[in-house]
Structure formats: C-alpha cells, structure tokens
Amino acid sequence: DAGITQSPRYKITETGRQVTLMCHQTWSHSYMFWYRQDLGHGLRLIYYSAAADITDKGEVPDGYVVSRSKTENFPLTLESATRSQTSVYFCASSAQGVIEAFFGQGTRLTVV
Amino acid sequence: QQQVKQSPQSLIVQKGGISIINCAYENTAFDYFPWYQQFPGKGPALLIAIRPDVSEKKEGRFTISFNKSAKQFSLHIMDSQPGDSATYFCAVGGFTGGFKTIFGAGTRLFVKA
C-alpha cells in the first residue's frame, strides 16, 4: 500500500533498554522527519533527513539516533530509553522539505 | 526557544460559528506557513498553507490571514461543524537553511452541535 507507515503502533519498554521505531514511505520522498508529540508542546522535531545518508538534528535530538541508508526508511533509535522519552512519535515525509509533510499514524511509546 | 506561539490552547465554538486560532512567530527567515489538522489517533494532515507574498488565502470554509509586519497569522474556520472538532497546529517553515518545519503547541477545537 502506498503511503507512510510506522511500526510498532504501541510499545512498552523498560528504562535503559534500546528501542527502535521504524518508518517506511513508498513515495520516494527526499525528506523525512521524526517528531515527538507531548501535551503542551505540540510537535517537536527530533531529527530530519534531506536524502539518503544525510541527516541533521532538530530541536530535541538528545538521546536519539537516526540513520537513513535507503530513501524509503528512516528508523529512530532510543539508545537507552528514559521515562522522559515516553511520548507519541510521528514520522513524516515530504517531497520538498517544508511543503506538505505527510505523517504516519504514530507510535505510542511508554518507558517504564 | 519557542519560535512559534499558538493561541488559544483550547476553543469551544457553537455549530455555525467562526473559529479563530492565532499564531505568532519570531524568525523572519520563515517563508511558508501551514496549518495542520489532527484527529485523535491519527497523524496531522495539511489543511491549508500560505506564503508571505499574500495576506490572505481561502479554501472552502478555511481562511488564513497573514500579517507579515506583525509576524502573525491566523486560521479562520467559517460555519464551524462538529466534524471540525480536532487539534489544529500552526507551523512555520523555511525554504532556505534547513528545510524543516517547526510547529506550534496546538489548539484543541470542540464544535458543539
């Protein structure tokens, strides 16, 4: 199916564990983004990528790692999960950077 | 550093009324101003967007008003319907210097039937 998909939709992990959130898009969009959504903060940019093998930090990158070896995939890794990383994570893609980002359904991550 | 300030946090409007959500930004380098709509359990979706060379853009019941000198823009929803009940995010983006979009904190709109 065409679009942008995130997996898993829900994840519970323990403090200190490594966890990877997956994002896959089928449009061959150059740009991909990771946001976290927290009440009162809206959507905050974690990392973004302008093309395969090109990534850059957003507003809140600490504790996260990204990679983009293929255009269609943009995984987000929490190296050592903390309770403050409990959030809803959204992946998005765009053909032109700022113009119309298409969002996935989100991953609700709970760190206990 | 809060680059986009959105207000109000929540809004209750009667069916048929006008919903108004405001946004203020700081950096004049931004040149793309979208509004996104998000329903519960879904990702945000682009609703309407404006470039700074125009002061107003209308698409159906949705209008963006843009004041470049004041660094403010707003979303007006005319004839608000219960189906418009959602969270609305303003955002700012730049075509230079990073191509990233920064979002406001969001406004929860509830339209009473």
What report would you give on this structure?
- The complex is a heterodimer of chains A (112) and B (113).
- By secondary structure, chain A is mainly β.
- In chain A, 0% of the residues lie in helices and 52% in strands.
- Chain A has no helices and eleven strands.
- Chain A has strands spanning 4-7, 10-13, 19-25, 31-38, 42-51, 54-57, 64-66, 76-78, 87-94, 102-103, 107-111.
- In chain A, the strands form two sheets. In chain A, strands 2, 4, 5, 6, 9, 10 and 11 form a seven-stranded mixed beta sheet that branches. Chain A has a four-stranded antiparallel beta sheet with strand order 1-3-8-7, with no helix packed on it.
- In chain A, strand 4 and strand 5 (42-51) form a beta hairpin.
- Chain A is globular and about 35 Å long.
- The mean pLDDT of chain A is 94.
- By secondary structure, chain B is mainly beta.
- In chain B, 0% of the residues lie in helices and 54% in strands.
- Chain B is built from no helices and eleven strands.
- Chain B has strands spanning 4-7, 10-14, 19-25, 33-38, 45-50, 56-59, 62-67, 72-77, 86-93, 101-103, 107-112.
- In chain B, a hairpin with a 4-residue loop joins strand 7 and strand 8 (72-77).
- Chain B is globular.
- The mean pLDDT of chain B is 92.
